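Predict structure. Input: DNA-(apurinic or apyrimidinic site) lyase, 331 residues.
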Amino acid sequence: MPEGHSVHRIARQFDRNFVGRAVTASSPQGRFVEGASVIDRRTPTEVRAVGKQMFLEFDDDIWLRVHLGMYGAWDFAGEILVDPTIASANGRMGQTNQRGTDLEPVFDTAGENSLSSIGAPRRTRVHVRMSEQTRGLADEGDQWPPPVVGQVRLRLMTDATCADLRGPTACQLQTPDEMLATVAKLGPDPLVDDVAEGEERFAAVVRRKPTPIGLLLMDQTVVSGIGNVYRAEMLFRARLNPHTPGRDVPEETVRGLWRDWVRLLAIGVETGQMMTMDDLNPDAYRLAMAHRDDRHWVYHRAGLPCRVCGTAIVLEEMATRKLYWCPSCQA
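Output follows.
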């Protein structure tokens, strides 16, 4: 499932490429025809990302709500204006968590930091013409608009940029009140809410819950944006047993989880990758950025030795989702 960093990156793409530009809207798949007709020829005026959900405002107070869910993604084609504050395989790869070191671009073999397709992992089939921090333009013969490939729920197009939405859990139009009501149900997001206030909200909720902390971190009403990868990694970084009831987790540990989420989310937005390992030398960092298996402590490492103690990493199901943890370090 796309996690919070991906949705914030998508929102930044829309802010730079769609806000302030009239769009044509269609539903090639046919499942959002009425909604597309309402926003067709309108101009996006604002975009917001909260946790795993994005809200795109159009003139006349119409909001498009998109929740990518397990399989959703946005595919971008055409001319893409790159946000200079974020990195990609096609641009600068700032090493935020490595004491400010700036390395050469690193190409992720899984495409996790792709600018052309953001969301659930997939092989994109659209061509991207980069603008600003560019690596070249499309050939003059490239087809425009790009052909529709697969099941596209919603296509938004300006004169230069196309965005195709595939496989979302939710794609709906909302009034301003409906949008605010949706956001009100979500837990704090470090990139949206005041960080100090968010910490207080998060700590207050977790400290009164008998629910295991491994479930609370995935509850979007408790904290926004954390998914399976960040959940496993944050619990390991805190050396916290995922089955510990929230109310039994020491307050300082709870606050430490929030502060770690603040840090990891910022890194994820900048790099486009869920980098959760610290203090890597430049060679190890490049390897980790290029290969997903080398950038996590426990996630996707079932049966492999813990990087710290050597104990085999355990894989179990917690509320139907895979949970990876070290039974020794997190005892």
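Residues 88-107, 121-141 have pLDDT under 50 and may be disordered.
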